[in-house]
Amino acid sequence: MSFAADSRSEDKNQKSVGAQNAIQLDEIQVKAKRRSVITPLPGLALDKEKMTTNVQSISAKEIADSKSVNITDLMNNSMQSVTINDYAGNPFQQDLNFRGFTASPQIGTPQGISVYLDGVRVNEAFGEVVNWDFIPMNAIATLNLIPGSNPLFGLNTLGGALALTTKNGFTHNQMHAEMMGGSWGREQAQFSNGFNNGTLGLFVAYNHFKEDGWRENSPSNVRQLFTSANFRSDYAEVGLTTLNVDTALTGNGVVPYEMYAQDKTAVFTSPDLNKNGLEHYNLTGRFDLNDDLTLSGLTYRRSVKQYAIGSDFYDGFPAMSNRIGISTPLCADGSYPDGGASSDSPGTGCAGLLPNGVSSTSNLDQGSNGFAFQLNHVTDKNQFTVGITYDTNDINFQQSEMFADIGSERQLVENTSYYTDYGLIASAFPIVRNRLTGSSTTKSVFLSDTWSPVESLHLTLGARFNHTRVKNYLESERGKALYQFDNPNSYFDPDNDRCAENDSDSEARFICTKGNYLYRSFNPSAGVAWEIKPNLVAYGNISRGSRTPSVIELGCAIDRTQISNDINFQFGCAIPTSLTADPFLKQVRSTSYEAGSRGIFEGFFGGQSVNWNLSFFRTELTNDILFVPLGRKNRGVFDNFGATLRQGIEASFSSAWNSHRFSFNYTWMRATFESPSTIINPNNSSNVVVDSQNYVYVKPGDELPGMPNHIVQASWNYSPTKKFDVTLNMVLHSSSYVRGNENNEHEARAATNVVVSGSNRDAYDYIGKGSIPGYAVFNLRANYKFDNGFAVFARLDNLFDREYATAGNLGRTPFTPSSGVAATDAAGFNYNSDQWKNTTFIGPGAPRAIWFGLSYDLDWKARKLKLD
Question: Is 152's pLDDT higher than 50?
Answer without folding.
Answer: yes
